[in-house]
Automatic annotation (TrEMBL):
MF terms in GO: ATP binding; ATP hydrolysis activity; DNA binding
Family the UniProt entry places it in: Belongs to the activator 1 small subunits family. CTF18 subfamily.
Region ranges (Disordered): 1-36
Organism domain of life: Eukaryota
Source taxonomy: Eukaryota, Metazoa, Chordata, Craniata, Vertebrata
Family annotation (PANTHER family): P-LOOP CONTAINING NUCLEOSIDE TRIPHOSPHATE HYDROLASES SUPERFAMILY PROTEIN
Main localization, broad class: nucleus
Domain AAA+ ATPase span(s) in chain numbering: 129-241
Keywords for the protein's UniProt record, in alphabetical order: ATP-binding, Cell cycle, DNA replication, DNA-binding, Nucleotide-binding, Nucleus
GO BP, sorted A to Z: DNA replication
Listed Low complexity bias regions: 16-26
Name the UniProt record assigns to this protein: CTF18 protein
Keyword Transcription listed: no
Length: 250
């Protein structure tokens, strides 16, 4: 019994002394162990959630339309000019047999028609005609995942808020303005925010009116009146960031 106790004591001392003399970088093993532990205990929906655009399993047409719409903000947000498409030489060398004026949209695909509708009108600030995108569908379809992946893919910092949590219109206005007018200061790589409003169908009518008033703000720089300037400062600036809304019941 005495020998068993001595052997047990020696084994305990060996085990307790191993971590201090094992590696010169104690943080690396701890971080690796923490990552393995978190990976072992995380949910499958979090472990296997898409991280990149090519990993999305949702409808490809919807994915491309949302990405196309988000890229229309590049001139306002990033200051990038839109790349012009080069005309195909085959169409110039060989004109079509039918007259194009008779049926201009007859042979265009659904994607081409949607892209033309998105690019049809840009306002004086080079913003797209539609300031808000609405993703609707049953729960579990991947709407929130799509919004986050598309936002990261386009170079934004995704900021999510739940419309049904903030029942007060003033709180709703404050959170929208903070997300769309303030820059992200987390980390060295600062990115502009893309606001994602989940459960917009659960928001009260007053909050919806607040969102509409933010979207429909006009630029009053040319008016020159002091009262207009004070009103602009009180109401907030022009909307210069994209907003993606998500709902179950359209």
């Amino acid at each position: 019994r005495r020998r068993v106790l001595e052997a047990s004591q020696q084994l305990t001392e060996i085990i307790s002394s191993e971590p201090s003399s094992e590696s010169p970088e104690p943080g690396g093993d701890r971080d690796a162990g923490a990552e393995e532990d978190s990976a072992a205990h995380c949910l499958w929906v979090d472990k296997f959630t898409p991280r990149r655009y090519m990993e999305l399993l949702s409808d490809d047409y919807t994915n491309r339309c949302l990405l196309k719409w988000l890229k229309l903000w590049d001139m306002v947000v990033f200051g990038k000019e839109k790349a012009l498409k080069k005309a195909k030489p085959s169409t110039a060398a060989h004109p079509p047999f039918s007259h194009p004026k008779e049926h201009p949209n007859k042979w265009k695909t659904k994607v081409q028609l949607t892209e033309e509708a998105l690019e049809a009108e840009l306002d004086q600030h080079k913003r797209p005609k539609y300031k808000v995108a609405l993703l609707c569908g049953p729960p579990g379809l991947g709407k929130t995942t799509l919004a986050h992946v598309i936002a990261r893919h386009a170079g934004y910092n995704a900021v999510e808020m739940n419309a049904s949590d903030d029942r007060s219109p003033e709180v709703f206005r404050t959170r929208i303005e903070a997300a769309t007018q303030m820059r992200s200061v987390l980390g060295a790589d600062e990115k502009p925010n893309c606001l994602i409003i989940d459960e917009i169908d659960g928001a009260p009518a007053a909050s919806i009116n607040v969102l509409l008033s933010i979207i429909q703000r006009k630029d009053v720089e040319g008016e020159g009146a002091a009262g207009a300037g004070r009103r602009r400062r009180r109401e907030g600036g022009l909307l210069l960031r994209p907003i993606i809304c998500i709902c179950n019941d359209q």
